[in-house]
Write a structure and sequence with these properties.
Elements lengths: L16 E5 L8 E5 L1 H13 L3 E6 L3 E4 L2 E4 L5 E6 L2 E4 L3 H4 L3 E14 L3 E3 L16 E14 L2 E3 L6 E4 L2 E6 L2 E3 L10 E4 L2 E11 L5 E3 L3 E11 L5 E6 L5 E14 L3 E8 L5 E16 L1 E9 L12 E15 L3 E6 L6 E13 L6 E5 L1 E10 L11
Parallel strand pairs: 1-3, 2-4, 3-6, 4-7, 5-8, 6-8, 7-9, 8-10, 9-11, 10-12, 10-13, 11-14, 12-15, 13-16, 14-16, 15-17, 16-18, 17-19, 18-20, 19-21, 20-22, 21-23, 22-24, 23-25, 24-26, 25-27, 26-28
């Protein structure tokens, strides 16, 4: 007599989870056909799903001319990018503010290890567009996580975070040539509770730029280079521009134009940058490791006036490494509103040719403790 044992295997799934693959909606994934409409159809169904929806871009190469993914959505959304998404090189298509944009969404996750290729060389230096599109825009987003994404050769900013709250970017890899214009890695404005960590950014402009209306920004374990460093500003273009509560820690800057920078326009409106901390930073052949510039004028055609942006409560702690220039610390503050409460502690910056570095100060009030290399030039409160 033979006995047969029936083995039952139960696979438990959450009935509220569903995958919306762009391939199922007809995406060609040939790197030539515009899949924008297909992506949008898949997104709209995912956005309507009352549960956890995964909007999936599988392995393959996709061409997207441009798309905006609108919310609000019924449930939470995971955007899983596994393949390569390429932007158009046709200036009649890409002359707009964004390439891929997510707007008015709560609870968003973007992951998957895929690559966004902005094909920016087609736009850099070209006069056809008044503005060039950023690669990914996050606008009016509440609660988002972006991790494991590669962005290469954006036409303008790689990531633009605007009017958003509680957004975390980690393990992102951003690459563009050192001479690519305005290709900021991560641009933050009018946003709060933003975190960037464990990421590598090498680009043609600021690795991270923190603009007006930003607060509670935390940046850690970021390697930056090439690029223009980690910058706050420019501020003062419009009245009452404020940046506050920024903490940059455990970062490395390699062969960048600037290190830690705060900048305001040479002729500015009233504004403020306050409660800023830069600490545990390594500089490797950085042109301007520590810089506050209140006479910022890249075009050199500005009507130079006194800046009305108040910079105060700024701490540089444990900043060490090599400077490409002899002036390793440069505080060029406004003659009408001097920089207040500037704290330097354990600054150890040497010239990479082993020459002594110097500090340059104008209208900068504060104090220095610990290692002073270069020697501090800050004025004390009693001297001011």
């Amino acid at each position: 007599m033979q006995f047969f044992i029936l083995s039952l295997v139960f696979v438990c799934t959450n009935a509220d989870d569903k995958i919306f693959s762009v391939i199922s909606y007809g995406a060609k994934a040939d790197g030539v056909t515009d899949d924008s409409e297909v992506f949008l159809k898949a997104w709209m169904d995912a956005c309507k799903w009352n549960g956890e929806a995964t909007f999936l871009i599988p392995l393959g190469t996709y061409m997207i001319y441009g798309v905006t993914f609108f919310g609000p959505c019924k449930g939470s959304l995971i955007v899983k990018i596994q393949g390569v998404i390429k932007a158009s090189t046709n200036p009649n298509i890409f002359c707009k503010g964004s390439w891929i944009s997510f707007e008015h969404i709560n609870n968003l996750e973007i992951e998957g290890g895929g690559t966004l290729d902005g094909q920016g060389a087609s736009a850099w230096g070209q006069p056809q567009c008044a503005t060039r599109p950023y690669t990914i825009g996050l606008s009016s987003i509440q609660n988002a996580i972006v991790h494991g994404i590669h962005s290469i050769n954006s036409k303008m900013f790689h990531f633009d975070i605007y009017n958003s709250n509680n957004v975390t970017l980690s393990h992102v890899h951003i690459i563009a040539p050192s001479d690519s214009p305005n290709t900021d890695g991560i641009h933050i404005s009018l946003s709060s509770n933003i975190r960037v960590f464990d990421s590598n950014i090498g680009t043609g402009d600021d690795c991270i730029s923190i603009f007006a209306g930003s607060q509670n920004v935390n940046i850690s374990r970021v390697t930056c280079g090439p690029g223009h460093g980690i910058s706050i500003g420019s501020l003062g273009n419009k009245p009452n521009e404020v940046v506050k509560d920024v903490h940059v820690k455990n970062c490395t800057l390699i062969a960048t134009q600037n290190g830690m920078r705060i900048k305001t326009w040479a002729s500015s409106n009233v504004g403020e940058a306050t409660n800023i901390y830069f600490e545990d930073i390594i500089m490797d052949k950085v042109d301007n490791p520590i810089i506050i510039d209140q006479y910022y004028c890249p075009s050199h055609t500005c009507n130079i006036k006194k800046s009305l942006v108040q910079i105060k409560d700024v701490t540089f702690n444990n900043i060490r490494g090599t400077s490409n220039s002899l002036v390793a610390v440069n505080f060029n503050c406004s003659s009408s509103l001097s920089c207040q409460i500037i704290n330097l502690n354990d600054i150890d910056l040497i010239n990479y040719n082993t020459k002594p570095t110097i500090a340059s100060c104008a209208n900068a009030i504060g104090h220095a403790t610990g290692i002073e290399l270069p020697p501090s030039c800050l004025k004390s409160v009693l001297e001011s």
